[in-house]
């Protein structure tokens, strides 16, 4: 896999890692000698000591929660999430609102949680946009729905309500980034789907979950490598996160070969390829 660009990859760090193996995140941060833009060592001035640099190809960390993973220790920006209604009505809202997070995700596959697009749009218009973007300047990632007809229909209804309200109020109410999930084993279909979502809504994408579901390790590796390079080159894709960095299988859907961490908390060869090591 080509040397990754550090500007787009988001580490999807499951909450079980914080609970069971927080030190595993240290594998993400490698230390190297100071270098110039050509990645060549820079000679220190006489008598001057140069500290090692911490290098990572990842831009941010996301854990599907409102709380900050303490093991991150400020080494990368954290992206909290309003995953359900609970994050709007409890102390978790205060954590998100008062945090220094520059970007917030809103709702994770809400169509599968029984949340209506009308309710989600009302919360978005009445609370999320005014409190987080207008008052605190946070960037907002819209609801990330599944890449199936149900998810697409839910998102279309949500965006219609938001756009209509935007016209009525004559101010920006749309998301800063369109949240997108995608799972399959077909890299060309993935490219077409992501392109279609951008063309349909005209918003830069935050591909907050993506992975191959093929059971063939070679196909998974090829899918991950080719699509990473493709997304790196698309100006309209802001961030993307490969699922999933956890020591257990989340379910039977995502391919075991797509795991980025093994059962002992070690990063898998696929994860290390994403890191460029």
Automatic annotation (TrEMBL):
Q: State the InterPro entries in the record.
A: ASL1, Asl1_glyco_hydro_catalytic, GH
One Gene Ontology cellular component term attached to this UniProt record is: fungal-type cell wall
Task: Look up the record and give one Gene Ontology term from the biological process aspect.
Answer: fungal-type cell wall polysaccharide metabolic process
Note one Pfam family from the annotation. Glyco_hydro_cc
Q: Which residues form the Asl1-like glycosyl hydrolase catalytic domain?
A: 58-271
- According to the lineage, what is the superkingdom? Eukaryota
Cited PANTHER family: ALKALI-SENSITIVE LINKAGE PROTEIN 1
The name this protein carries in UniProt is Asl1-like glycosyl hydrolase catalytic domain-containing protein
